[in-house]
Structures are given as structure tokens and as C-alpha cells.
Automatic annotation (TrEMBL):
Residues 4-100 form the Glycosyl hydrolase family 30 TIM-barrel domain. Belongs to the glycosyl hydrolase 30 family. One of its GO terms (biological process) is glucosylceramide catabolic process. This is Glucosylceramidase. It catalyses: a beta-D-glucosyl-(1<->1')-N-acylsphing-4-enine + H2O = an N-acylsphing-4-enine + D-glucose. GO terms for cellular component: membrane. GO terms for molecular function: glucosylceramidase activity. It is an enzyme of class 3 (hydrolase). It comes from the Eukaryota. Coiled coil: none annotated. Keywords: Glycosidase, Hydrolase, Lipid metabolism, Signal, Sphingolipid metabolism. Its EC number is 3.2.1.45. The keyword Zinc-finger does not apply.
Amino acid sequence: MSTEKIYFFGSPWNGPDWLKNASQSVGTLNGVPGDKYHKAWAHYFSKFIEAYELEGIPIWGITTQNEYSQVRDFEGLFYTTEQLADFIRIDLGPELRKNHPLVKIMI
């Protein structure tokens, strides 16, 4: 029996269309950091982590988006560096500190 530890992390490819400012599958988050859209997206991360933990899979870390600044020609959620920093500082960071303080945020 192996005693090696496996570290799991998650990275979303895209968010729900209703959270984005575009009717297509490419866009940025609606609103501004701290509003209902940003809070809802941060809560999605928390619920994802909870769901995996309930199945016995602890999440070690997350990224906020796969290729966050490259999403232009394919489905995804686009952030500028400033938008991403604000989302983490105002919404995602506090959500994870409150509900999942050991989960790392990787960029």
C-alpha cells in the first residue's frame, strides 16, 4: 500500500453564461468586484470544493481560470490582470478564507 499523498487542485474553464457580460460563451464577469455576480462566482468555487470534500476528495488548491487572459476565440471567462486581482482580493479570497482556509489560490 502506498503512503504517498496526492494533491488535487481545480481550474474552471468557464463560468455560467448568466454571470458574464456577453450573450455568447466568451465574456468577463458582469458587474464590479463585490457585487452579486462576483460574489456568486466566488460561491461557486466554495460549493465545488465542498462537493469534492463530501466525496472524500480534499482540494489542495484552485486556479481562478485556465488561461484567463487568453480567452478570446474560444469558450471561457476573460479577465485582465487587474480584474483578476480585484476578484481574488474582494470576493474569492474572503470566501475561501471563511469556508476553506487551507485551500491555496494559484495564478
